[in-house]
């Protein structure tokens, strides 16, 4: 029996997560009155119950009754009702942007500023985030990228660390990504741009990849980078970090940075990772120069 409390910041994807869990075979109930949670648990934990997976949506809409939730959660283990908490979160700036795009008002802001509502909500939900078994930061997650993260936890039963890693290639001429946590400069490597037949290609093409990786300095850099990142990840998890953006840059962001970002991503995608992982090439489609006959 799995009893999951799905909660989090408004606009962070709680409703989407509930729909996905429902598709995975969970019996989902959204916004159930807090006074009925123990009754719900009693029914589902009953040996004769046909329900083996429950996801319960709880959020700021429960209003003043939210203050009762902490007592309810304390009572659950006393009655031998095991539960897990999934907390969906996102950066404040991201939440504000989502509200502005949908032209919806925050449930706590009324006619005031969305930022004020978010601030109040964070304060009210802080105890849930601290108790959460899983925290998923959706700031950089597409909807389709959330599903595999949920499947890892609630279907495959894999160990989950609340960390999502983005490996990002970019071009320094277009600026360093503002959300970078770690930035690596690979402009010291020989540049395929100056090889005419390679110029219109990218690091996703075998010819460019083979050109870059033929140099010992590229292989040594890749190995040292992979080793360092593997050392850092568990320490970031221990610190409680939820998002990590590793940016790898070259001049234009189309050849060397793409090649090394792909190499790092492949090394980290060993199938055993307990963290989320994605790959992005920010500038790969910029400055495309193709010689025409």
Describe the structure.
This protein has 293 residues and is α/β, with parallel strands linked by helices. The protein is built from nine helices and nine strands. Helix 1 (14-23) crosses helix 6 and helix 8 crosses helix 9 (256-268). The longest helix is centred in the C-terminal third of the chain and has 24 residues, at 216-239. Pfam families: PapZ_C (PF22740), RapZ-like_N (PF03668). This is UPF0042 nucleotide-binding protein.
Radius of gyration: 23 Å
CATH level-two architecture of the largest domain = 3-Layer(aba) Sandwich
Total domain units: 2
What are the secondary-structure elements, in order, as H or E? EHEHEHEHHEHEEHHEHE
Helix content: 40-55%
Widest sheet, order of strands: 2-3-1-4-5
GO molecular function: ATP binding; GTP binding
Organism: Cuneatibacter caecimuris
Keywords: ATP-binding, GTP-binding, Nucleotide-binding
Protein name: UPF0042 nucleotide-binding protein
Keywords:
4-stranded parallel β-sheet; single chain; elongated; RapZ-like_N; Rossmann fold; 18% strand; 2 domains; alpha/beta; 293 residues
């Amino acid at each position: 029996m799995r009893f999951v409390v799905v909660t989090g910041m408004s606009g962070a994807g709680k409703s989407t997560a509930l729909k996905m869990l429902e598709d995975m075979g969970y019996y989902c109930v959204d916004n159930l009155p807090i006074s009925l949670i123990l009754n719900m648990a009693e029914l589902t934990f009953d040996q004769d119950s046909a329900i083996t997976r429950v996801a319960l949506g709880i959020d700021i809409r429960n209003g003043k009754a939210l203050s009762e939730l902490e007592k309810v959660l304390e009572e659950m283990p006393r009655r031998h009702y095991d539960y897990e908490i999934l907390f969906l979160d996102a950066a404040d700036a991201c939440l504000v942007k989502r509200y502005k795009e949908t032209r919806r008002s925050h449930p706590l802001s009324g006619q005031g500023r969305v930022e004020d509502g978010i601030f109040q909500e964070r304060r009210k939900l802080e105890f849930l985030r601290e108790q959460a078994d899983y925290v998923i930061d959706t700031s950089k997650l597409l909807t389709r990228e959330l599903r595999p993260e949920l499947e890892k936890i609630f279907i495959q039963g894999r160990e989950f660390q609340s960390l999502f890693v983005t490996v990002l290639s970019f071009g320094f001429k277009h600026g360093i990504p503002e959300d970078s946590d770690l930035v690596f400069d690979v402009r010291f490597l020989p540049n395929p741009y100056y090889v005419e037949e390679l110029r219109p290609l990218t690091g996703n093409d075998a010819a460019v990849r083979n050109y870059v990786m033929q140099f010992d300095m590229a292989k040594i850099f890749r190995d040292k980078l992979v080793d360092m990142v593997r050392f850092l990840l568990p320490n970031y998890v221990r610190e409680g970090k939820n998002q990590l953006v590793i940016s790898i840059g070259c001049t234009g962001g189309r050849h060397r940075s793409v090649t090394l970002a792909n190499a790092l991503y492949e090394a980290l995608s060993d199938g055993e990772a307990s963290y989320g992982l994605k790959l992005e090439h920010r500038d790969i489609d910029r400055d495309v120069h193709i010689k025409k006959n």
